[in-house]
Amino acid sequence: MNKWTLETTKEFPWPKFPTIVEESKEANSVGEFIEHSYFDMRTDVLTRKITLEKLLTGDAYSSHDDALVTSINLLSNFVEHDMVLRIFKEMQIEFSTLAAILELPSARKTKPNWYKSFASNGSRILQVPETIVDDIRMSINDDIYNLQTNDSEWGGIGYDNEVRYTREDSPILYEELEKLFDNMNVIHAVENYMDNEMILEGVTLHVCKEDDKHWNMTQADKPPTPFENLHFDPKNGMMKCIFYLDKVGIDDGPFSYVMGSNRWDMNPFHKVVAKAISVSNYMENGWRRSQFASLPKSMQYCANIGAFMTGDEDILENKYYTGPELGRGNLIVFDPGGLHRGGIVTDEGMRTNLQIMFRLAHKGKALGFI
Ligand SMILES: [Fe+2]
């Protein structure tokens, strides 16, 4: 059982997105053209008629009668260029990811005893021993102190209070985490799940505070909904961990995951468009919403569904708390393709965690295109 062979359990519950009074028939027929071209090409990738090399060199797009490129170009007649470019980019990334998974050797086979429930739910909490948490905290103590005590002005991208660590600038931190994930079988779980070699690539220290802005980017001009920021990630070929470095209670905005949502059924075309829209149009004002609603009807989707939900939806979030009194762990491993969100901090709470990414890899190197 891996991500690509999991059975779907229910239809993905798309909320109602912004619309305009009069739909454009021309735009809708361009949407159909794009959808057909997308599925034609996707089929060729899945049947290995199109190779990873052809995708990466761009040959795949010119040798395919340019149907996808032509149809995507037509979209510029109806909406902003940024969205058009992002949609095409997102399709290219998806095709390359699928081709890589098909062509590269499979993952290691050892599975932890918690693998089955992890694969089925899309998420699993584990307990890292306190001594190891202390060691890791120690190595980044100054950054934690600075983020927790300084008032920062949000720059409009990323988190309000964050420090990013790369393998090059923080080799010891990466080494410590790699050892931990090997001992706890986390790397084995994510490799089996993705059916590919994976590598730890991307560690961000994040301190979440009550006055944070980042979680309210989508429809920022509207009041937060009860599910604000519930989303699936726009990135492909990735698995993630949230590693709490402090106790996290209800006021500290616990991370939450909708169990089993990694298996919910979604039209791949809607999915790829939703990912692209979520990072190219935040629908933060009427003009941006009208741009969204000017897309062909078949392309009006956004991965950040929380901003459009009403609170009446039949969605159950599993909120992850820590601490012995709460009986939970401090390390959450999850498939970011399922619905999740960092909770919202209230009543002077604060959450300090590492966000850790595992990316598709080959021979110890992350694949560059993802
Ligand atoms: Fe996410």
Task: Record keyword descriptors for this entry.
370 residues; alpha+beta; Jelly Rolls; seven-stranded antiparallel β-sheet; three-stranded antiparallel β-sheet; 10 strands; 14% strand; globular; binds fe (ii) ion
Overview of the molecule:
There is one protein chain. This protein has 370 residues and is an alpha+beta fold. It has a domain at 115-266 and 304-366: Jelly Rolls, CATH 2.60.120. The chain has 12 helices and 10 strands. Strands 1, 2, 3, 4, 7, 9 and 10 form a 7-stranded antiparallel beta sheet that branches. A 3-stranded antiparallel beta sheet has the order 6-5-8, with no helix packed on it. A hairpin with a 2-residue loop joins strand 9 and strand 10. Helix 5 crosses helix 11 (268-280). The two termini are 23 Å apart. The model has no long low-confidence stretch (mean pLDDT 90). The structure holds fe (ii) ion (FE2).
Give me a quick take on this structure:
It is built from twelve helices and ten strands.
Measured by DSSP, the beta-strand proportion falls in: 5-15%
The gyration radius over C-alpha positions equals 21 Å
Kindly provide the name of the CATH class of the domain at 115-266 and 304-366: Mainly Beta
Distance from N terminus to C terminus (CA atoms, Å) equals: 23 Å
Q: How does CATH name the architecture of the domain at 115-266 and 304-366?
A: Sandwich
How would the global form be characterised? globular
Classification by helices and strands: alpha+beta
Q: How many beta strands in the DSSP annotation?
A: 10
Catalogue the ligands. fe (ii) ion
Within CATH, the superfamily of the domain at 115-266 and 304-366 carries the name q2cbj1_9rhob like domain
Order of helices and strands: HHHHHHEHHEHHEEEHHEEEEE
Task: Please tally the helical runs, counting DSSP H or I stretches of 4 or more residues.
Answer: 12
Proportion of helical residues: 25-40%
pLDDT < 50 stretches? none
The major β-sheet equals: 7 strands, antiparallel
